[in-house]
Design a protein that fits this description.
The chain has 270 residues and is of the alpha/beta class. The protein folds into two domains: 140 residues, Response regulator (Rossmann fold, 3-Layer(aba) Sandwich); 88 residues, Thrombin, subunit H (Beta Barrel), CATH 2.40.10.220. The chain has seven helices and twelve strands. The chain is elongated and about 70 Å long.
């Protein structure tokens, strides 16, 4: 991705083996702030995933599974493949001695920072956010979107004048959706139309939302409808939508690699 693309679309942010506490205290809050966050739950999966997403930001959590030397070798090995040259890496550690930290600092490039989780309050979160913003993690986009094209069920429906209107969701963010409407239903909607108590069906969830139609465009044999969720939409509905977006994006990353792609290197032994 060129620098101009970064500034527009932002960048994926990966955390390798972050652990439960970091995920609940930091990652969930980053998602609420509309950073595009992913978890790599096994360092053996890191390289095949990052090869497909080299222009990303990646934090390596060096607390478990490998020794400090093993993690050092793991991070150093990324320098052996030119595909990783756009990748910005950082380190997160619960605790590390000054000598060991200096070994990492002197021998590794860590543009996303070296963060020790011994700080109180929100200091760790603020340090991560500062690094992410310096690396254009968000770009100018305001909201992370998830594609719903391949979902068996992802639609928005409401009833008006004893007629049911059902729109297929194309993609979704925490503030709205893009959807398809049959051309023969064009007279049923209009820009600035407000509809209360619509049902958003995604997978097995039925989510109550209030909407406003903000744009309608012809797209060949269907209409492309841009819909925003009104502020009257219940908070629990927005929370469910956010959960779906994170789940959808994570699944797309997890399914992008095959078992044969896995890195089988034992970095404690090399």
């Amino acid at each position: 991705m060129a620098d101009g693309d970064k500034s527009v679309f932002g960048r994926k942010v990966f955390f390798i083996m972050p652990g439960i506490s970091l995920e609940s205290q930091i990652l969930d809050r980053l998602r609420l702030m509309e950073y595009e966050v992913y978890v790599i739950d096994d360092y053996h999966k890191a390289k095949p995933i990052l090869r497909k997403n080299p222009d990303s930001i990646c934090y390596v959590c060096i607390n478990d599974k490998l020794t400090l030397m093993g993690w050092h070798k793991f991070m150093k090995s990324f320098e052996d493949e030119s595909v990783f040259s756009p990748l910005d890496m950082g380190i997160i550690s619960h605790y590390i001695t000054e000598d060991k930290r200096n070994e990492f600092l002197n021998e590794l490039q860590y543009d996303a920072g070296f963060i020790v989780q011994d700080k109180v309050g929100d200091a760790v979160l603020h340090e991560i956010i500062k690094n992410l913003d310096n690396l254009q993690a968000k770009g100018i986009r305001k909201y992370v979107r998830a594609s719903c094209i391949n979902e068996q069920q992802a639609d928005l429906l409401w009833i008006k004048d004893n007629r049911m209107f059902k729109l297929k969701i194309i993609d979704i963010s925490s503030v709205g959706v893009a959807a398809k409407l049959s051309s023969n239903q064009a007279n049923a909607i209009y820009i600035n139309q407000i509809v209360e108590a619509c049902t958003l069906n995604i997978r097995t969830d039925q989510i109550l939302v209030d909407i406003k139609i903000t744009a309608v465009k012809s797209a060949g044999d269907f209409l492309l409808v841009v819909i925003m969720f009104n502020s009257s939409t219940p908070a629990q509905s927005v929370a469910k939508i956010r959960h779906y977006i994170a789940e959808n994006l994570q699944e797309s990353i997890d399914s992008s690699i095959k078992p044969s792609d896995i890195d089988k290197t034992d970095y404690d032994a090399v």
